[in-house]
Structures are given as C-alpha cells and as structure tokens.
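Ticket #4471: structure export looks truncated?
Reporter: QA, pipeline team
Priority: medium

Steps to reproduce: submit the single chain below to the structure queue and open the exported record.
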Amino acid sequence: MLQHDTSYHLWSPLAQTKWYLITTIDDHSRRILHGDLWEKETSWTHIVAQKAVLTQFGCPLTYYVDNHSIFRYVEQRDSVWRKFEMTEEQALVQWKEVLKDLSIKVVYALSPAAKGKVERPYQWLQDHLVRTCVREGIIRIDQARQVLYEELHQYNYKRVHSTTGEIPVLRYEKALEENRGLFRRFEIPRPYQTLDDIFCYRFKRTVDPYRKVSWNTLKFSLSGVPIREEVELRISFNIKTRLALVRFWYRGKLVGEQQVKAEDLKKVHF
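Actual output as written to the record:
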C-alpha cells in the first residue's frame, strides 16, 4: 500500500510564501518513494507524482489518501454551486481515473487517526527541511527542491525509522528479496499505446455534423468516426514546453492526435 498526500506549508521561511509538498510513501518500509515541491496544486501535479512512482517502482495493490477533492468527489461536500464552479478535470477526479486504468484500488482515510498516519512523515520533513532552508538562505522553490531531495535521501538511506526500527530503503529491499513486496510490474494496459494515454486527463466529446469535436473555441477534425458518436480525449502536458498533447480514442482505437498550447484548453488546469 502507498500513502499519498499533500502538505501546504512555509517550507522556507525566507521565501515568505508557502509551497505544496506532494509525497508518496511505501506503507511497509516507510520509504518515501517520491517527494516534490509545487507552487500550486492541481490534479496534474498529482498525476506527475503517480507517473514518477508507478513507472519506477511498479503498481501497488492500493493507494491510501484523504478526502481531498482531487482524490474523491463527495456528494454532500461538493454541493450544486461547487459543482458548477469545479473545473472539468476536478469533476471527474482525474487522479483516480489513472489508478482505475491500472487496476489499483483507492482507500480513503476516513478517521482522524487514519489521517494522522498519512500526515506523520510531514512532521519530520517540517523539522528538517525548514531548518535546512533557513540555514542555507533558500528563497526560491528550485533551491528548496534540491534541499528536499537531499533530506529525502537522508530519510530513506541514513535514518533508522522510529516505528520499524530499520532504515527505510533497507527494509524495502529486504521485502523485495523475500518476495514480500506487493508491487507488480508497470505495463501500459491495452488498447493504449504510450504513457501519455495513461498519465493524462480524460474527457468526452461528441462528434458534430462536420466531423469535428470542440473545446470552447478549438475545433479538432476527426476522420473515421461517425457523427454524433462520442470520443474520448486523453490529454497530457509537457511542463517544459507548455504544450498539451491531445489523443483521440474511439471504441478502443486511436483515431488522431494533436498538439496545442496548454492555455488554449480553457478550464483545464495543469
């Protein structure tokens, strides 16, 4: 089981702004498999974390998360007015759709005690990361990321965990050697072809009489799809180029793809 969570905190007091720390932790070994800092939190930042973990370490049986709206839609909480204001990727719970494609279950921390279990590693990081950032005069998020990576290495490779009594990475590797690891090898599920088909946003659109699908002012021409039929848009994002790749799927077949500027996809937050 993997524990996945976010902490919004003043990680570097000299920066005078809070950042989001997203982490994924192996429950058995307490090894932090992924950790990164972001200036804003979206469904996409969590999908980036998923991709980093699952492609490197494989697929767990379950993900353990809290009731954040990025992870779960709750009818009583997400009222009518809130649903109206939700972006389209939030309404579908895109993060969860990735796990659904990979047959990974999601378990929610429904009690304060369970929530505390997810948040506990942040206490250590708050102590160490904040202190190091102050000592080194960190004011930018890219600088803080480097400090974070060093602290994660210390946590995983050098520190004896207070609960297990073992160094996290050694406990993790021991479980693998004894065939007690519950990770299966990551594979792209058929009929999908690339990582962009899995670690992406998913949307439905209907083909109009001109054999096009629309996204606000954008028009995408498609061939081989009957009018009034529904196609699925699987949209991935390149952080460096700021371009989004839209791949069109119809009844299990790729029927086209197109690159667009991310800002042209209105109401989609990367």
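Status: closed, not a bug. The export was complete when the record was re-opened. Leaving a note from the reviewer for reference: Residues 195-264 form one domain.
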